[in-house]
Amino acid sequence: MLTHLAPAPRPPARVVVLGGGGFVGRRLSARLARAGVPVFAPDRTVLELASAGAGANLAELLQPSDAVLFLAALTPDKGRGIEPFMANLRMGEALVSALEARPVDHVVYFSSDAVYPMGDSPVDEETPAEPKDLYGAMHLARELMLKMSAVPSAVLRPTLIFGATDTHNSYGPNRLRRMARQDGRIVLFGEGEETRDHILVDDVVELAVRVLFQRSQGTLNLATGRSISYRDLADKVAALFGGGVSVNGTPRQNPVTHRHFDITALRKAFPDFVFTPLEVGLAKAHAEMMATS
């Protein structure tokens, strides 16, 4: 659940974006700039967040009136082993160390729904976190690190994010679209029975901006509340190519898992927010991809 510390939305004095070069970070930085909010997104030539002394270096860059948006992480496509896990923990340690030395006005942390177990029951913010891999465990550990700070903070746990410029190639609309374009077919795990919630990056950005502007505190899942099977998702992606793209299953190697969300808390926090319908988001991402080919 979120608590809005600002009674009315107001822009932060400045937003420091850690991880501003990533898929979501670039979009968020651009959205904030359009709103007239000063953005400072130090790249690795200025700040290597996983390096020794990063906390002290970051503290020197912070101002008391800043909001910090913490997106920096080595994602699973960069590796799932102990080395990226430890590097990600060092990033969290650096942020908390910097906040102790130089407190700021607000922090928003992008965690992940990987902190939750898979299951048939809908997930909400009260669902116990039970990560099943090092990536989920890392995010939960960084959440706990942040709670040690006295700075007001919001933890956002997004589900699978999609958009034309995503480079992670996770199993979802982005990968399915690339398979369709490159191979003329989409290959599923099993028959695509698993259900997942997919959220357009534009919606993630707008929700994060609202959290920043209302100086929100607490935990919030970023999900649409609508899950879809990979088979149905693949059919929708294939249809955008105007025919000729086949959808093929494969022998199943892993058990079928599902993920559903109860978004009551999100509706309460932002009752007027309207999600982009999945079909509209898929068409938008498809058009952006084709326009940049």
Estimated radius of gyration? 19 Å
Strand order in space, largest sheet: 1-10-6-5-4-2-3
The end-to-end distance, rounded to whole angstroms, is 41 Å
Low-confidence stretches: none
Q: How big a fraction of the residues is strand? A: 15-25%
Q: Average pLDDT, to the nearest integer?
A: 95
The topology string of helices and strands comes to EEHEHEHEHEEHEEHEEHEHH
Which of globular, elongated, flat, extended, rod-shaped describes the shape?
globular
Number of distinct helices = 9
Structural class: alpha/beta
Structure commentary:
With 293 residues, the chain is an alpha/beta fold. The chain is 37% helix and 17% strand. It has 9 helices and 12 strands. The strands form 3 sheets. A 7-stranded mixed beta sheet has the order 1-10-6-5-4-2-3, with helices on both faces. Strands 7-9-11 form a 3-stranded mixed beta sheet. α1 (23-34) links the parallel β2 and β3 (39-40). α1 (23-34) packs across α6. The model has no long low-confidence stretch (mean pLDDT 95).
Provide keyphrases for this structure.
single chain, 293 residues, alpha/beta, three-stranded mixed beta sheet, 37% helix
Structure in a nutshell:
With 293 residues, this protein is of the alpha/beta class. It has helices at 23-34, 54-61, 82-101, 134-147, 173-183, 201-213, 230-239, 264-269, 278-291, and strands at 2-4, 14-18, 39-40, 66-70, 106-110, 153-158, 160-162, 185-187, 195-200, 216-222, 227-229, 246-248.
